[in-house]
Amino acid sequence: MTLIGWSQILSFFALLLVLTKPLGAYLFRVFEGDTQPLPRVLGPVERVLLRLTGAADRREQTWLEYSGALLAFSVVGMVILYGLQRAQHLLPLNPQGLGAVGPELAFNTAASFVANTNWQSYAGESTMSYLTQMVGLAWQNFVSAAAGLGVALALARGFTRRPGPEGAKTLGNFWVDVTRATLYVLLPVSFVVALFFVSQGMLQNFAPYHELTTLEGAKQTLAMGPVASQEVIKMLGTNGGGFFNANSAHPFENPTPLTNLVQMLLIFVIPAALTYTYGKMAGDTKQGWVLFSAMSLLFFAGVAAAYAAESQPNAAVASAAVTQDGNMEGKEVRYGVPASALFATVTTDASCGAVNSMHDSFNPLGGLVPLVNMQLGEVIFGGVGAGLYGILIMVVLAVFIAGLMVGRTPEYLGKKIESREMKLAMLYVLIFPLFILGLSAVAAVIPQGVSSLNNAGPHGLTELLYAFTSGTANNGSAFAGLNANTPFWNISLGLAMLGGRFLMIVPALAIAGSMVGKKVVPVGPGTFPTNGALFTGLLVSVVLIVGALTFFPALSLGPIVEHFLAGAGKVY
Amino acid sequence: MSSASSKPASLFDASLLKPALVDSLRKLHPRDVARNPVMFVVWAGSILTTVLVVKDLVSPRTDGAPLWFTVSVTLWLWFTVLFANFAEAVAEGRGKAQAGALRKMRKDTTARRLANGVEERVPAPDLRKGDLVVCEAGDLIPGDGEVVEGIASVDESAITGESAPVIRESGGDRSAVTGGTKVLSDRIVVRIAVNPGESFLDRMIGLVEGAARQKTPNEVALHILLVGLTVVFLLACVSLVPLALYSGVPLSGTAVVALLVCLIPTTIGGLLSAIGIAGMDRLLRKNVLAMSGRAVEAAGDVDTLLLDKTGTITLGNRMATELLPMPGIRMEDLAEAAQLASMADETPEGRSIVTLVKDTYKMRPRELAAHHATFVPFTAQTRMSGCDLSEPQPRSIRKGAVDAIVKHVQAQGGAVPAELATVSGRIGDAGGTPLAVADGARLLGIVHLKDVVKGGIKERFDRFRAMGIRTVMITGDNPRTAAAIAREAGVDDFLAEATPEAKLALIRTEQGKGKLVAMTGDGTNDAPALAQADVGVAMNTGTQAAKEAGNMVDLDSNPTKLLEVVEVGKQLLMTRGTLTTFSIANDVAKYFAILPALFMGVFPQIAPLNVMRLTSPFSAILAAVIFNALIIIALIPLALRGVRYRPLGAAALLRRSLLIYGVGGVIVPFIGIKAIDVLLTTVGLA
């Protein structure tokens, strides 16, 4: 590790810290304020869009109505995206004449983009037409992020709303939240930053691919396309699905160290800002900063571990006569070890899944970090919205244990946490082990699973575990080394992504529904503060304990064993 | 009860242990085990490994785990279940012992039922609600009820442990009698208030036996957490088998079951019901009878406590503390007159005046007879008392409420000094009651009667405050007096000139703010407020109506007993919370013991993960299982006694608990498992 490396990491975090409060305050104004920004320009657009969804009256919804709207919206989106892929050869904007996408792959991709995962069992440049990418995939990149944001807002409203004497039942309106998230947040940022990306050399065209002859005389196809316009939302919406197969390692998709930095900031900026928005909603910004601090602690632990691990030489090439300055296998020279380790941490902390280096080529412990980041529940800033509602579920668990320990019925922001909330929170927690461990266990022993692995031994197990973790956690990053475009993998991963998204959103919204009407107990000396360092520590411990205890056995057979074997000179 | 409250029974009473051991075996029945999902998993795992043992015995294998290992793990898994059963049995046993003592009291008495004015003898269990029974000196009262006729002294020691007899009379707030208590003198007619099986004694027996025990809300929530964790670990362990298969690691069924049992929260799962039963039991030892566990838990959450002033915060009676002569009047004259006016006054106030004059002004009480005095008693009309003397000269001395004396003096043409209003106003402000003294038409001065705040009460309120509970004093006094007493006693707030409606309104307002309100009371007019409060503690001396309205009865009739109730409620939650934390924290060490042991055969390179340097894979797994079982036994005393509550404020309390049970919970098993492993190695088992 070097000083330069750490200064890159620290300056990234400093920029994030600077952006958190202003963007958080802006989000608060957009979603909870009486007037939205630019009322004369965007106001009419909002009204038209809401009339289209039938929510022109902006009537508030109960948790059931909110979930119903979200599920219906997602189902329709998934069907459209599936149809678009199946029929792309008949549709315009397909200069390469790419054929229809196969049914399993189309299902997997539709599930993936609707679930804000962007797992890609395909290579974009050789599978998806420009129309599919722009109308199908990019559309979902916007609205799936907006929907996640809506869930987070609904849960936040559930915790922070102060019910009147007649109680409260509603959590806001899904259509209003999604429309505003897209219109006031995602679209403007995407537009402005896309221009900046183009200035840095990113592609933005509809040109057919170039056929080139290289210096050695070999033929090479240079893929083209409207990259910049998709790239911002890929990051900002924590989607991560690359235009090209190489994702953010591709020079046309992430040309300079500066775009690399901006891309990482785009990943973290909304999840980080949402903690501040949440604090404002709670009427105590410290409540938000506690979440921010807990996330930051976990982030630094991850990035330090990944950076340290990747600064070690790669055991696989130890025999070759090369001088290793850290593990550079599978990394872009223009980023180097620190920016690659940082990117890997950021993209897996938040459920983005874009990559600028090959996680498969990381040292075993370096690859362990992204895996653990996802298994902790995508709560280290996490996905857009998903990070906030994920950490709030962890807060429920932390508050429950802490509440018992101080001899009082647990309460959070003055609202009691009772058996119904515990039941829902445990349902939420169970989804991860159920899908990740359950599907990994199946894939590890059936030929359809094992035959897709490129490596044997613990490394192969890590590839398999990583795939289901990435899918269930809605991250979408690939460890690579796995041929996922087979019927078994496409369908099982598709189900993991849908389960990891919607089976977790519904309990989260149900908790919001049961919390919103609860009476608020005024804070007294008997209630322990949830806005201080002690609670931050407790929250971090709960996140670590829940995640680590669940996955430690599986991890120990994967990267952990591999690490010790590599130490003994045995590599896979 | 008296024996239970006076001598704290040792945690493991020898006479209780034997039935508990038998019970823990009986509780192996699937029906009993199924009630606790966490222990059910252990139970099922034990059966599975037992089958494996039998299989190994029938067809011995050479490649699998050695027989001694499978047998030892199986035995210790069974012990784990038994230890959990034992914890519950011990807790129940303590209740049963008390219930036995109570049941002895419920002798089959014969009641003298009044039917149409005629007395008939019927067995007590035949009495129904509304029946009238006659009880005379020496009779046991056949059932709970209300005195409708007569007055009697009753020995209630069987219920309260208090040996001094109490007076029970018809009408008023002392009309309730309890079945099983004994009439010592006189004759009363009692209207039976409950049907057989619903009496106070019956409910008490049901509660201590755990028959009426329902899971409290927080217990249910915790249960869900534990079940959820168990499922998580079940998934982790079951999925490990195919993952290991992929990796070429053969896992023995015994080892996987051992891992599972060590990971699931058996410590708290095994002790959870014992904690609940012991909590109710602890409350009973403090002579508080809670009608439900829910009420005890609610007590731990109380935000506001309403207390009656009289008898709770202050001693029941006002005391004279000072004499204040009017200008131109000698102190001796006032003292003498005050003393004379009170000589025959048997009220506590009157006696306190005599005592004050004797002690402070060194004037011996005089024989009224020597003065040929006639005592003039207090009446509601005159609102004065005093005496008339005929020698040496006729004098008429009066003391009484200031306005009454003023009228009395003015009626005789006397002057009222301007000082009077100032002095009496000042006394009122200080929370006292001014009493004017007049000799004929001459107004001599004022006696300062003061409410005396009970000793130690301020400290108790400080303790409440430290717990985060706001205390509100309820009094019929005027606001000025109330404010002064509130200040002196250290309560946070007061409700002056309180009527039953005002009390009820106050409770509703507090509850409207989301607060949990506790209140103590005894009178019939307290009943609506007791019923409205989240925690209503009725005094055992109170009326039947009050007792039925509340959800707890304090057998000692001590209003500040609520402090102990709150502590027990908090202890219950804390014990559960800390043991849960401990249980989960233990898993870290267990992973480090068992996982390397499982994989070391195939991947010897992971030896560094065996941080405890345990001797062999088998000793490592066995040591973890043994530790897991023994920790249940080791924590039974803590579960029964409860974690000590300290009113430190929530943040400090949490920090402390996290340090002891969280950090300690991570460290202790590392030491324990290592020690057991060393022991196993020493005795040559591994």
Description:
The complex is a heterodimer of chains A (572) and B (686). Chain A has helices at residues 3-32, 39-53, 63-86, 103-114, 124-127, 130-160, 174-199, 228-236, 257-281, 285-310, 336-349, 364-375, 386-405, 419-445, 447-450, 457-472, 487-516, 533-567; strands at residues 210-213, 219-222, 411-412, 415-416. Chain A is an all-alpha fold and 572 residues long. Chain A has a domain at 386-567. In chain A, strands 1-2 form a two-stranded antiparallel ribbon. In chain A, strand 3 (411-412) and strand 4 form a beta hairpin. Chain A is globular and about 80 Å long. With 686 residues, chain B is an alpha+beta fold. In chain B, 52% of the residues lie in helices and 18% in strands. The longest helix of chain B has 39 residues, at 67-105. Chain B is elongated, with a radius of gyration of 34 Å. The model of chain B is unreliable at 1-8 (pLDDT under 50). At the A-B interface, helix 13, helix 14, helix 16 and helix 18 of A face helix 8, helix 16, helix 21 and helix 23 of B.
Give a short summary of the structure:
Chain A is mostly helical and about 575 residues long.
Alpha-carbon distance between the termini of chain B? 52 Å
Give the overall average pLDDT of chain B: 84
Biggest interface: chains and residue counts? A-B, 68 and 77 residues
Count the strands of chain A?
4
Q: Give the radius of gyration of chain B.
A: 34 Å
Task: Give the overall shape of chain A.
Answer: globular
As residue ranges, the low-confidence spans of chain A are none
Q: Order of strands across the widest beta sheet of chain A? A: 1-2
Overall form of chain B: elongated
Task: Note the main sheet of chain A.
Answer: 2 strands, antiparallel
Query: How big a fraction of the residues of chain B is strand?
Result: 15-25%
Find the count of extended strands of chain B (DSSP E, 2+ residues): 21
Q: How far do the termini of chain A sit from each other?
A: 25 Å
Q: Fraction of residues of chain B in helices?
A: 40-55%
Which residues of chain B sit in consecutive blocks of at least 5 with pLDDT less than 50? Answer: 1-8
Mean pLDDT of chain A: 92
